[in-house]
Structure formats: structure tokens, C-alpha cells
Amino acid sequence: MSKRIKVLQIQLRYNVNASDLAEQVIAGLLTERYGVTTLFLRGRPGPDEPVSAAERSIYFDLGKSDLKGLKRWSALLKLYRFCRDEGFDVVIAHRFKPISMMMWLSKLLKRTAFIGVQHGIGDYDRRARVFEASWLIGPRWHIVGVSQAVKHYLLSKVPGFTESNTSHINNAIDIDRATGMLLDSREARSRLGLPQERRIVGCIGRLVPVKGHATLIAAFARLAARYPDVLIAIIGEGRSREELEALVAEHGLQERVVLLGAHHDALQYVRAFDIFAMPSLSEGLPLALLEALAGQRPVIGSDIPSLVSILEGCSGRSFQVGNADDLARQLKQLLSMEDSQLQALGEAGYAYLCAQHSIHDFRKNYRQLLEKMVMLVGDTRP
């Protein structure tokens, strides 16, 4: 048997759950051919938190300040020594900061192939970052956007990113696992403390400005009197809670908008909602939207590039990003529908999900890319 391919996945911070993109990549590599190590630059799991499915998990326990300024060079040296001593064949770096660090180190790690996974849009809006990436990217690199929109962004921003070294692999979820986790509507509402007989528009996401919750609340304020049986329910926690609570109070919606806080495995509660909303101002390719489709719920989202192609394909509704009036108009159309019409939209979305975001295709595509990069490095080694 040929020697195993040694793979390192680098993540900026500890964040492990079964639907995480990095964990899904690992799931596709759990064969005798690969030995996978996961490295977290920051953080580590608590006593009751899950660990990566990789054979080994390494925690550098770096602080936020360790990745800035002069301290960054010390972190780079530690990372270089680790990679040099381990002799990885392929390094998969997730998100901007790990990609940037490995681009510098790739000049020294001559026998390694590199895959950078870009999760979102906006990281290369700074000229210094564009210059760095164009200068450092080499023939042993391949950049993956998690959606077609992310790929187009990368190609438009960074001259060093080209059609030959940049591609996209659509983010995906394990649909069988997702549907197996889902609670039925009554049980989900019961666990969340939501009423059974009301129509609920819900969303899942951290309470931070980029998720656009303020737009959703402002849009609902325009409709609340017309639809007295409708509630807004938001699963998530974050620094914007106080601002959102103040906005709810400003519109007199304290009994109509429920901030539910963070819930472990929030996916299981998707069927608590009659309509799933994603009012984000920016996204890569959000798993929450795919999870809503797994729950056969009609979806509405902002018309940002990473969402609009999905919404068009899954029979969803889109509105102009950040425009509460437009969101109110689109939401009104959904709230005016019969239950049977909403069910039909949910079923259409599920069919789209199965056709376009299969986890089996996702894993296969990463395996094929990894094999291609291993062969490429083998051909270029001295």
C-alpha cells in the first residue's frame, strides 16, 4: 500500500460542530489513504464540547494579540517549525488569516501543497492584502471559494488569483443527518417556548450587525398591525442584543419579536418557523439557509451575491439588502399565502438542495482537488 497522505487543516479558532465545513472535509478523508491533523490557532474545547473528527487535534492556544504586529512573527515561527517537523503533504487553510500565514510559510515549505478555503466576501478589499496575496501565491497553491459568488469576488479583487488556481466548491450539508436531527414543529416550538398556533418568521444567526436583524425588525414593524398573529423569532446571541432590544421597544414589538438566545444545534429547531428569513448584509455561503431548506421551509433573504443565486434556484424570495421597505413588501406576499402554498415552496427548496448542495459531491470534490495538488507537488519536487 502506498504511504498515507498527511493532511493538515488549519482553523483560526476552535469551532467544532458536525455541520462545519472543515469537519465535512475531514469526513470525506476518513480512509486509509489519508492521515488528517486539525490545528486550531486559538481556543480549545471545554469539558463538554466536541472535538474534531481528525486523527489528531492540536491547539496552539494563541491569543488575539499573538496574530498581530511583531508577535505575529513568533506565531509564524511556531507554525513553521510544526509544519516542517511533521512533513505534511497538503495544508488546507481556512479563512483569511491562516491563508495569509501559510502563504508566507509556503516559501519555506517546498515539499507541501496548499489549499486556501475562502469562506466569505470582503477580506481582500484592502490593497495591502491584495498585494500580499498576489506576491506570495505560487504554483503549489489553489484557492477555493465556498460559492460561485466568493470565487467571482476573489477573481475580481486579486490579480494573482486566476481561473487556473481558483475555483469554487459549493458549501453543503449532510441532508440525511440534517433531516434526522430536525424536531417536528410542535416539539421545536415547545422547547423554544414559542406558541403553537401563531405564524412565525424565524432566523438563525449571531446577533451582530452584519446579520441584518435590524432590517428584519424594521420591516416587521411595517406589517405587525396587519398580521396580529405573526411573531418574529431569532435564535442567536451576540454583541448587538441591547441595540436590537432597543429597536424592538422603539417599535412597541416587545410581545411580537422574541430573541431566543443561543441554542446548541440550532438546526433542530428550523421547523419551529413557518418562514425562514436571512436578512444578512454579507455572507459567504450560509449553512443556516441550507439547513432551512432541509427543513422544507420557504426562505427569504437579501439579494447579496452569495444568497441571490440560491434564492432564485430554490423558489425563495429576495429583497434589496438593507432595505426594510422592500423586505416588508416581499414578506407581505409570503404572509398572505395559504399554508399549502408555503408548503409547496418549502418542498421546491428541498428538491433544489438535494440537487445542488449534496454533501457527497462536496466531499468528492475536495478529495479530487487534494489528489490533484499532491500530484502537482510530486511533479515539481526536485
Automatic annotation (TrEMBL):
One MF annotation (Gene Ontology) recorded for this entry: glycosyltransferase activity
For this entry, the protein name equals Glycosyltransferase involved in cell wall bisynthesis
One biological process term from GO is: carbohydrate derivative metabolic process
Keywords, sorted A to Z: Transferase
Domain Glycosyl transferase family as annotated: residue spans: 185-350
InterPro entries (alphabetical) = Glyco_trans_1, Glyco_trans_4-like_N
Glycosyltransferase subfamily 4-like N-terminal domain residues: 38-177
Species of the source: Halopseudomonas bauzanensis
